[in-house]
Structure formats: C-alpha cells, structure tokens
Specification:
Layout lengths: L4 H32 L6 H7 L4 H5 L5 H12 L6 H4 L5 H18 L1 H18 L14 H9 L9 H14 L2 H10 L4 H22 L6
C-alpha cells in the first residue's frame, strides 16, 4: 500500500511526538531516581543519568526547579478522593481517612514533599518582584481538594462562609507545612508526628463544630 504525502507527514509527526514524550519521561524518571537518592540534581546531572545531552534536557525544562517539581509529583501517588465517600457522611471519619491516608504518607516518605516545598519557595522568590496580577500560583493546592471533600456533608447544614473557613483552617494542621513543623521544629519521631497531626486535625474540626451547630435537616 502506498501512503499519501499527507499520511506520511502525519505518521512522521506522530512518531516525533511519541519520541519527545519518551525523552521527557526518561528525564523525569532519572530525576526522580536522583531525588530518591537524596540528591538535588541539576539539569546536567539528570541528563547524565538519563543518558542524554544537557542541551537536549534544556529543551524540555528551562530550570532545575521545574524539573524537580515534575519529578516529585511523579514520585507522589495521587490519593483517590473516592476513599473519603467510602467511610460515610461523618465529617470526623472523613477527616481521619484523609489525614491517615495522605498526611501520614507525607511523614512516611518526606523527601518528595520537601522537594515540592523547596520548589514552591523558589517560585515565590522568583515572582516576588512582579505585580500581584502577574504572579502564578506557587502550589497546586491539592490539600484544599481533600478538605473540601471532607466537609461536603456539612454543606446543607452550615453557611458557605463557615464551610470555607473550616476548609482553610484544616489546611493549617495537616500537610507539608505540618510535616516540617512536627519533624523539624517539634523534633518528633514519625509515630509521634502522626499522632499529633491526627489529634490537631480532630481538635480543629471539633472546635469548629462546637461553635457552629449544624441546622437540623
């Protein structure tokens, strides 16, 4: 069968796209390996591990920060929010599921999360001189997605402004910043840090519910 010129062009373009995707993934995977080894790789370091030239690597990532962030996200497995629904409508049970499923994992495997904190701080400094309307978010804010899911059953019982306050407050007591405080400032071991993170999260929710009595359905 003879391919038309258009078909040949389409096939060539597709092949190049696939090759670029494989090259990018190889670079990210190599960086993830180096991060796992406790290193902060430069782009040339990652390129060497991925068996490619630094010039090639720079075509995919302009800074080590952006490469670190993508590699760290590669290491971190997204937690299925569907697991929150499986525990029912009790916000306390839902919060426990999130803290134990996500927050405790951060304490068991700190390195990629600390790497994301470093990348976000560097992004903040890079943008600090820009007008507020030109700055890009420094974090993805996945924690807010989880917290929103935790308090979902309360949406029909409390005003939106109160729910939003609770979501924001919960962001203070579990997550990457909490890991840094518990491990570096409080100097707790992993099990002590897990216990404190869970207790603080429960106290935050219980204190909120004590002040905001849900309306009877």
């Amino acid at each position: 069968m003879t391919l038309s010129r258009q078909a040949k062009s389409s096939k060539t373009t597709s092949g190049r796209s696939n090759q670029k995707a494989r090259t990018r993934q190889a670079l990210v995977a190599a960086t993830a390996e180096l991060i796992r080894e406790g290193k902060a790789p430069s782009i040339p370091d990652a390129a060497e591990r991925a068996l490619m030239s630094p010039a090639t690597a720079y075509r995919y990532f302009s800074s080590a920060q952006s490469l670190w962030e993508e590699a760290s996200l590669e290491i971190i497995e997204d937690w299925d929010t569907g697991q929150i629904d499986q525990v029912g409508d009790d916000p306390r049970a839902r919060l426990d599921a999130v803290v134990q499923g996500v927050g405790w994992h951060m304490l068991d495997d700190e390195l990629p999360y600390r790497n994301l904190v470093r990348a976000s701080l560097e992004r903040w400094y890079e943008q600090s001189g820009l007008p507020a309307n030109e700055r890009m978010p420094v974090r993805q804010g996945r924690r807010m997605v989880y917290n929103t899911k935790v308090v979902e059953p309360l949406r029909h019982e409390l005003p939106d402004v109160a729910i939003d306050q609770l979501i924001n407050a919960l962001a203070l007591v579990w997550g990457t910043e909490a890991v840094l405080v518990l491990r570096d400032v409080c100097r707790l071991d992993t099990e002590q840090a897990k216990d404190t993170m869970l207790r603080a999260s429960r106290w935050m929710l219980d204190g909120f519910l004590a002040q905001h009595q849900p309306r009877k359905r």
